[in-house]
# Entry
Amino acid sequence: MTRPADPPLFEFNDIHKRYGRFHALRGITLNAPMGSIGLLGPNGAGKSTLLKVMLGLLSFEGSAQVLGFDVNADARKLRARVGYMPERDCYLSGMNAVELCIYAAELSGLPHPEAVQRSHAVLEFCGLGDKRYQKIDGYSTGQKQRVKLAQALVHDPKLLLLDEPTNGLDPDGRDEMLALIQSLPARTGCAILLSSHLLHDVERVCSRAILLHQGEVVYSGTIEDLRKEGQADLYEVRVKSGDEQLKKALEARGCRVDEADGMLSVLVPASTAKPTELIFTVAAAEGLQVRHLSPKRLTLESAFVRAVNDAREGGAA
Amino acid sequence: MSAAKAKVAAKEPRGAIRDQGYQPYTGSYTPEGGRWKLIFGRMLKMTARQPWVLVMLILCIFPGLVGGVITYIQAKMYAAGAAPSPEPNVFYLFTKWYGTLIIGFLTALFAGGGAIADDARAGAFPFYFARPVTREQYLVGKLVPPILLVFCVTVGPAMLLAIARAALAKDGDDAMIALLLPFKTIGLGVVEALALGVPVVALSSTSRGRAYVQGAFAALFLLPWILGSVFTGVTRSPWPNILSIRAHLLNVGHFIFAVPLEENERALPVWVSAAVLTALVVGSLVLLRKRLESMEVVGS
# Structure
């Protein structure tokens, strides 16, 4: 027996959103499979606007489907199957965690008995089992983050939108929260869209990334490919002595060279057929001894910066 | 228990411990149209927990009791031809400062002051609007409890008094007149509950501070009343009362209960009062709608 293929997580087709003169989303065309996806971009890139589109909270030009629902026509059905964990505090004063989760589940459409049952289970799951009858006003930052996650999970969403889920947490709390989020797809079967400025968080939780810049998609694909894309022409070089001499010589051949901690980071022009040979040839011509030469592994952060810079340069050109 | 769960349970030995872990939800969803009832129920529950609201609910009994005693005595005297009809007593209970008007105002102040301001302060809008809840459902759920409570504290005692008045009628004709009192009571009660309940919730949407909202509502209700009374006395014109909610309620009450003005009492034309109260309620609803539309769910 064959299982029908999962619908894509979302499909956007030429989405535009304008706030007066400000063009927040400029022709976003995207689709993504189920899984964990990081939503990245500098401030004002359009991340929040895209999240609003995904929640069916905004009118826009173009068409969008999330979890197979038309965002414009079935916004409320869609929101019943999406969980949203906002960046800021989001709880109702005077309530304990159980009351909040029951209320959240009922507002999402669960009947009362199921809402009660799931609230207890999800608070246990989020590590708040023994604190669930305490007033949320007295919770620590970490506990509040867990309650926010619990209220987003209580109705068993198929897509979880997480907006800066580790905001305000200390390193241990952040680690615990990320471990919890990381375990969600396997344990709950939900997809995750993680919007964060903390690239380490995205790197740890997500396999794919969407990069936005000035309302446009700069990159959409796997994080591994994003790194590879950036690192194809990038090498780390160390010579016995004469770093400055090699830097000048390579720059004269069209390379971009940065120096840090005695290591040269060399970006060879894309047109170069054999980049390593070029570096060896230039070093030999300068009489320098190469001690280390390897392709440079980009961090997500440097890949992100590079993709955004490329987009800026492309925009300026 | 679903068939699948029953099948799994049947296969397991008795007493087996199962880690249920995270269970997917496979049940049905409740109809979307009824979500306002959840918000209403929650709002009512939280409002009823406020001590001052409870105090108002208890306090409203006393003017009713005093009015009842006076009406009883007056009705007996009226039957003996020794006193005028106690007909206007229900009207006085509604509109005089010693009646339920101040209690209604204070109930609106305490019940409605935090209706939306508390949610704004706690950042609760994503909690509601990232779910299948519309802003209209939220609005209805937040508006109805203060209106209902104001209606209860003002109409409740007046209704009992109206029924007592009908029971104490001296003859059939008198009873027929008295039987209209409950309807008049509901009419003025609805007007009063809307005129007090809707503006306070609208003010609540403009701030994160409950105290600010309560201060602003108290100013909106009391200042025009006090200043209007002073200037009406000085100028001998009813127009300084144009901004006084209390004066307009009194005026509409005169009209509904057909109670003539007292000596030296000056009132605006009733259509002016009706128009001002309608403008107040409609304006408040428009403000609420605009404020709710502008509330952010994602990001700042």
Q: What stands out?
A: The interface with chain B takes residues 48, 51-52, 55, 57, 76-77, 79-80, 82, 84, 86-94, 103-104, 106-111, 114, 118, 121-122, 125, 151, 155-156, 161, 163, 187-189 of chain A (CB under 8 Å). Chain A has two domains: 10-227, 232-316. The longest strand of chain A covers residues 22-32. Chain A has a mean pLDDT of 87.
